[in-house]
Design goal:
Elements (H helix, E strand, L loop, with lengths): L10 E6 L4 H16 L8 E6 L5 H15 L7 H8 L2 E5 L8 H9 L7 E6 L6 H10 L8 E5 L6 H14 L5 E4 L6 H12 L12 E9 L8 H26 L8 H14 L8 E7 L7 H5 L9 E6 L11 E6 L6 E8 L17 E7 L3 E9 L8 E9 H5 L8 H11 L5 E2 L1 H21 L4 E4 L6 H9 L10
Parallel strand pairs: 1-2, 1-4, 2-3, 4-5, 5-6, 7-10, 8-16
Antiparallel strand pairs: 6-15, 7-11, 8-9, 9-10, 11-12, 12-13, 13-14
The protein binds 6-O-phosphono-beta-D-glucopyranose.
């Protein structure tokens, strides 16, 4: 496969919170990889800004360590690492006070390429967004062409999300705000759109008339990974369902946009969220993992013996629109499940009549979009089992593993690589708009409020299992089975 890398304009990317975990694990490695692929123009700079009293050399050493730890083999190329680090600067700033902001302004004035794009990545908690935005404006760091990147959580309910959006809107136009949902940067997630709208094959069948149901599973084997305090306040509904799973649902269910451009795509996604019916309490299962197989329990992990926060959610929902009336969507996600496995399965209906009689059994086409760990798409088709003995039917996969089909050079960039470059390009297609975020909270809020009002206690499930039995039962009651993720 020919790798096509289109260089982006020169930029100054300021990572506010540049010494934090997200910067080390994701932002720095992503930028380094794009640098190595030749996409980053020569005069571009990465400027770390945080409270720690680093000088430039100290921060460069920090960046080098982060790359060694998180950028994989590519960071073994010492020469590339040295060249990348030469583009790195650092300014110590105080997000709550005035210290350092003028130094940042001076640094950005000096040495920037003419017309360089200015992007500010708020890699800090949302409690600081407003103060930072205000400082950027007061110290003359931004203009109409500047961009800001913010990370989830965008609030913890509709009211707080509205407040955050309003705070940002005081300083920036919506066209300057890039809200990252890193699931939208995943290669296979974008492929969903390519498969749906680049082929004639699927779209005519993509509706309630031909599709029995759709399942979305995002299973993780990891636990709360040192984020116990945050997680116990958030829970799976806020951490995963309100954003990542809803975004996947939107891409699967939306109408074809007129163009692949930011507002056309986001308008269609918004319509999906607004068409979602409320979820009935008996159509949702919350779970919390218990100690098993050498793993601690959720309560031990978060240090809260009485926690009622969920680490697992499975739910059934419906879209109230012409295309999907009668086709349920099942969503499932959780931590400490048997393995990491994220996939979307579109289960088509039975043929209207079986000419092979009841003994041929039930066969349905399934389209499986595997998001991780191995990216690929499989279409299950029914064929005749080879050999004599009558018409015995069997389901076989028409398999398309991207790595196999496109060869080993099919390099699958990390979601952050794609998204950061999109910020520089000024392309908001894969970022969430204010109204999308608010609509998603408007759907999620009553579910969470219902749990709180009822004092709901999540169902226990063994760590490294497939989740609570009730999630299985919910499917079985409908005569269906979850795909993937066995005990
Ligand atoms: C994050 C959540 O947004 O996504 C984490 O806060 C979760 O709890 C992570 O582990 C999953 O992302 P990925 O890319 O590893 O599937």
């Amino acid at each position: 496969m020919v790798s096509r890398t289109i260089p982006v304009d020169s930029f100054d990317l300021v990572v506010i919170g540049g010494t934090g975990d997200l910067a080390r694990r994701k932002i720095l490695p992503a930028l380094f990889k794009r640098f190595c692929s030749g996409q980053v123009a020569g005069e571009s700079r990465l400027i770390g800004a945080a409270r720690r009293a680093f000088d430039t050399d100290g921060y460069r050493a920090f960046v080098r360590d982060a790359l060694r730890e998180f950028a994989g083999e590519i960071a073994l190329d010492e020469d590339a690492v040295a060249k990348f680090c030469a583009t790195v600067d650092y300014v110590a700033i105080d997000a709550r006070g005035d210290n350092g902001w003028q130094d940042l302004a001076d640094l950005m004035e000096a040495g920037a390429a003419p017309d360089a794009v200015r992007a500010f990545y708020f890699s800090v908690g949302p409690g600081l967004f407003s103060e930072i935005a205000q400082k950027l404006q007061r110290f003359g760091l931004t203009n109409e062409a500047s961009r800001v990147v913010v990370e989830k959580p965008f609030g913890r309910d509709l009211d707080s999300a509205r407040a955050l959006n309003a705070q940002l809107a005081q300083y920036f136009d919506e066209s300057q705000i890039y809200r990252i949902d890193h699931y939208l940067g995943k290669e296979t997630v974008q492929n969903l759109m390519a498969v749906r709208f680049g082929n004639m094959l699927f779209e005519p069948l993509w509706n309630a008339q031909y599709i029995d149901h759709i399942q979305i599973t995002v299973a993780e084997s990891v636990g709360v990974e040192g984020r116990g305090e945050f997680y116990d306040r958030a829970g799976t509904m806020r951490d995963m369902v309100q954003n990542h799973l809803m975004q996947l649902l939107c891409l699967i269910a939306m109408e074809p946009p007129a163009h692949f451009d930011p507002d056309a795509v986001r308008d269609e996604k918004l319509k999906v969220i607004r068409a979602l019916d409320g979820v009935q309490p008996h159509h949702i299962v919350r779970g919390q993992y218990t100690a098993s197989d050498g793993a601690l329990s959720y309560r031990e992990d978060v240090g809260n013996e009485r926690s009622k926060t969920e680490s697992f959610v499975a739910l059934k929902c419906h879209l109230n629109n012409w295309r999907w009336a009668g086709t349920p969507f099942y969503l499932r996600t959780g931590k400490r499940l048997s393995h990491r496995d994220s996939e979307i399965t579109v289960v088509f209906k039975d043929t209207p009549h079986s000419i092979f009689g009841p003994e041929a059994g039930r066969h349905r086409n399934e389209l499986t979009i595997q998001l991780q760990p191995n990216e690929g798409i499989t279409l299950g088709v029914t064929i005749k089992e080879p050999g004599p003995g009558g018409m015995r039917l069997v389901d076989v996969p028409l398999d398309m593993s991207f790595a196999e089909a496109l060869g080993p050079s099919a390099d699958t960039p990390d979601a952050y690589e794609r998204l950061i470059m999109d910020v520089i390009r000024g392309n908001q297609t894969l970022f969430m708009r204010n109204d999308e975020v608010e609509a998603a909270w408007a759907w999620t809020d009553p579910i969470i409020r219902g749990w709180e009002a009822r004092g709901d206690v999540p169902k226990p499930y063994d760590a490294y299992s497939a989740g609570p039995d009730d999630a299985m039962l919910m499917m079985r009651r409908d005569g269906r089975e979850w795909k993937g993720l066995s005990k």
